[in-house]
Amino acid sequence: MAGTGIAIMGAGAVGCSYGAELALAGETVTLIGRPSLAQAVAERGLILEKAGQKVSVPLQASADPAAVAGAEIVIVAVKSGDSAEAARQIAPHLAPGATVLSFQNGISNAEILSDILHRQVIPAVVYVATDMAGPGHVRHHGRGELIFGPGPGATEAAARLRKAGLSVEVSDQAEVAQWVKFTINCCFNALSALTRQPYGPVAAQPGAYAVMRDVMEECRAVAAASGVVLPADLMQMAEGIATQMQAQYSSTAQDMMRGRKTEIDHLNGEILRRAERFGIPVPVNRALWVMVKLAEQAQPA
């Protein structure tokens, strides 16, 4: 069981990366993920590869969602399409006073979790470049900052994670930050996945920034209709991501290269759904969504 520590539901690359950092700082951490993860961690700990060094981090790992029982902080890091099922799985086992944080891509996950768990879930904007080299082996490539939205337990959870050495702030501008990251993901993720290229080569391709700018302006229109004003310098932010993370593959590309279902329905597909409600044309987002869906269907079973 998770005891009085921190449980991470859906321990893929993001969950394992933060779980390793927290455990190294002395927190009691329980990862909840695939059986292969639980087995690998039981045999040799969680392997963290960072800054050219590789360490084995001792912590607990389980394939049973009941392992969230007793945890003071529960981090949900499952894929967006699994949010509702993850909430149903952990709901009977959550401690009454547990703070639940959503460390997920997309802009609707905290709301989905809250509706099912009947408690406010704190959305977190996660800036980290990481991937899995194999079961129980996470590679950290850069960054790691977190922005929490306000809500019950958010300030206390942020202070606890900062004490563990993480960069965390609580901001009433978290929704805008979430939309900014989401929009940049809509610009990069599908292109990275369809071409199986990291950000650097994608950005270097003549015409790529023009495509991303079209995606961005469609997202800007949908954000405005949703009550969110995106910053004017968003394209410069996207260019900065490409410069800082030239070798990073998008999470959508990583999923596709592993033959897994992507989160495209909760990225460009989310824009498409919202745009249809508002009557806003989003042809470039629609095209990217369609192409990724077709590419998923073409993957070997």
Short summary:
The protein contains twelve helices and ten strands. It has 301 residues and is an alpha/beta fold. It has two domains: 6-171, Rossmann fold, CATH 3.40.50.720; 175-297, Orthogonal Bundle (N-(1-d-carboxylethyl)-l-norvaline Dehydrogenase, domain 2), CATH 1.10.1040.
**Portion in helices:** 40-55%
Give the number of DSSP strands: 10
- N→C terminal distance: 35 Å
Largest β sheet strand count, sense and barrel closure: 10 strands, mixed
Query: Which ranges are low-confidence, i.e. pLDDT below 50, for 5 or more consecutive residues?
Result: none
Give the overall form.
globular
Following the backbone from N to C, one meets helices and strands in this order, namely EHEHEEEEHEHEEHEHHHHHHH
Our estimate of the beta-strand percent is 15-25%
Arithmetic mean of pLDDT: 95
CATH superfamily of the largest domain: NAD(P)-binding Rossmann-like Domain
The assigned structural class equals alpha/beta
Q: Examine the coordinates and then state which fold CATH places here, giving the name of the CATH topology of the largest domain.
A: Rossmann fold
CATH architecture of the largest domain: 3-Layer(aba) Sandwich
So how many helices?
12
The structural domain count equals 2
Calculate Rg over CA atoms: 19 Å
